[in-house]
Amino acid sequence: MSDLMDGVNRRTQMVGQNRLELLLFSLGTRQMFAINVFKVREVIACPPLNRMPSAHSVVRGVATLRGQTVSVVDLAHAIGMAAPEHEQKAFVILTEFNRSVQGLLVASVDRIINLNWDQIRPPPRGTHKDSFLTAVTQVEDRLVEIIDVEKVLEMVTGPSRDVDEALSRTIREGGRVRRALVADDSSVARKQIVRALAQIGVEAIVANDGQQALDKLKDMAKEGPIDEQIGMVISDIEMPVMDGYTLSSEIRQSPELSGLYVLLHSSLSGTFNEAMVRQAGANRFLPKFSPDELAEAVLGHLQPEEVGE
């Protein structure tokens, strides 16, 4: 399956073009699923797995891959589907996101496709709030579901911890507007960020994708100077309709919004290149998810004289 990853370096050339590559796979039914190739290290036939009695029920076992011990999550079981019976016929998608490496057990892997982000749509109306679906797209008249793998990972690792109490004590009056616009298509990520911001006294305005965020910013700019209403933008990179790179570029190209501070906050920690931030016009990149690092980055912009004292 290694040939599936040929040409992966092309990904870095898509910055600001609102494009992405998806790896298509199945979980043992006719339904097709997908994951952003940015999160994928490689795809391999399922190796022998060692059971871990104390592990979460969705962890099928652990394996040693490239000298690293990796937990393998039964993705079908995690999202409420029937688990594959025969591991020897399955595959493992080795992924890196949220500063960790994990394997996702899947029934089969199809191919990599290249799409525009505007071809990626939010989940259909009526989708249950606890669904693991983060977006959908159409490929050859077939519905492809994009799984919120950050939500799956949270099942295994547990919810994020609170901001360190010492950081919370640095809050003071004054400085820049203590309000941030948060753009992220993952419900888990939005909750994590909003919670961290609340603990340092920063109000969050949320958007589910880049286009929704841009629309909110433009509406705010019509009401008055944007820097009097919002202190910064915290944006995911992978989002349907409009990604974070394109959102940052659009902000820089808008006379009313160009002065906004943009922090790209993404789970794509393993493949990120600082040059991508500069190319998109963002001010900073921060990998998900450390509440303390996010708090420090936000306070460092909104009240810089307070951080590090």
Write up this protein.
The structure is a single chain. 23% of the residues lie in helices and 30% in strands. The protein contains eight helices and 15 strands. The chain has 309 residues and is an alpha/beta fold. It folds into two domains: 2-156, OB fold (Dihydrolipoamide Acetyltransferase, E2P) (Beta Barrel), CATH 2.40.50; 165-306, Rossmann fold. The protein starts with 18 loop residues before the first strand and ends in a 7-residue tail after the last helix. It is globular, with a radius of gyration of 20 Å. Strand 13, helix 6 and strand 14 (262-266) form a beta-alpha-beta unit.
Which SSEs are present, and which pair or pack?
Layout: E1 19-26, E2 32-36, E3 40-45, E4 59-65, E5 68-74, H1 75-78, E6 91-97, E7 100-106, E8 108-116, E9 133-139, E10 142-147, H2 149-157, H3 165-168, E11 179-183, H4 187-198, E12 203-207, H5 210-223, E13 232-235, H6 244-253, E14 262-266, H7 274-280, E15 284-287, H8 291-302
Parallel strand pairs: 2-10, 5-7, 11-12, 11-13, 13-14, 14-15
Antiparallel strand pairs: 1-2, 1-8, 3-6, 4-5, 6-7, 9-10
Helix pairs in contact: 4-8, 5-6, 6-7
- E-strand count: 15
CATH architectural designation of the largest domain:
Beta Barrel
CATH topology tier name of the largest domain: OB fold (Dihydrolipoamide Acetyltransferase, E2P)
- Continuous helix count: 8
Over all CA atoms, what is the radius of gyration?
Answer: 20 Å
C-alpha termini separation: 52 Å
SSE ordering = EEEEEHEEEEEHHEHEHEHEHEH
Instruction: Please outline the major beta sheet.
Output: 5 strands, mixed
Portion of residues within helices: 10-25%
- The overall number of domains is 2
- Broad CATH class of the largest domain: Mainly Beta
Please identify which CATH superfamily of the largest domain we are dealing with. CheA-289, Domain 4
Mean pLDDT equals 85
Report low-confidence residues grouped into runs of 5 or more. Answer: 1-9
What percentage of the residues does DSSP assign to strands (E)?
25-35%
Structural class: alpha/beta
Shape: globular
- What spatial order of strands do you see in the largest sheet? 8-1-2-10-9
